[in-house]
């Protein structure tokens, strides 16, 4: 679980991001201006900042430089409608860990957040679902204290479900994340591996089927 500051003046977008982060176990802290963002940073320990460049009271790039000076070590992901190459270069050279252009899919945002948190060793690695324990750092899965043998692909699929818990993922997206872009099979492969995970871990109730779409791990 990470404390993530959302610096976005569009309240609808800010709230949507906050709710999505909350569903996946993080805490989203809203700020609607640069001044509000600095006020939160004075009071809270923040693990990651999602920063809109087009703020109403100050330039987002200038705010990012100030954060780097005064709160060194907090990673920043730029989230903005400014999609010109010079802006991307300016953001990345200015210290941003990533640069996401609006509009974006929430799945993409979550994936990029996870990458940055992992890079800074702030990603959640230990998960417990009733009598099932999964340690992503150690790479082991236990049920009722006993090790469960999973194939590499079953483990990768479980990892994707855990890192995107409470989020509905399409079969195509699961294939992309767990198998890779170059996988030549079809989406029925996902159904087979989901069935095996349910049987091995007893997660029939937690791994929900989304009709004609995909699956969601509910925790």
The largest sheet is: 5 strands, parallel
- Share of helical residues: 40-55%
- Poorly predicted regions: none
Coarse morphology: elongated
Q: Helix/strand/pairing class, anyone?
A: alpha/beta
Order of helices and strands: EHEHEHEHEHEEEEHEHHEE
CATH architecture assignment name of the largest domain: 3-Layer(aba) Sandwich
The gyration radius over C-alpha positions equals: 19 Å
CATH topology of the largest domain: Rossmann fold
How would you describe this protein?
- The radius of gyration is 19 Å and the shape is elongated.
- It folds into two domains: 3-119, Response regulator (Rossmann fold), CATH 3.40.50.2300; 126-217, Orthogonal Bundle (Arc Repressor Mutant, subunit A), CATH 1.10.10.
- With 219 residues, the chain is of the alpha/beta class.
- The strands form three sheets. Strands 2-1-3-4-5 form a five-stranded parallel β-sheet, with helices on both faces.
- The protein is built from eight helices and twelve strands.
- The mean pLDDT is 90.
- The chain starts with a strand and ends with a strand.
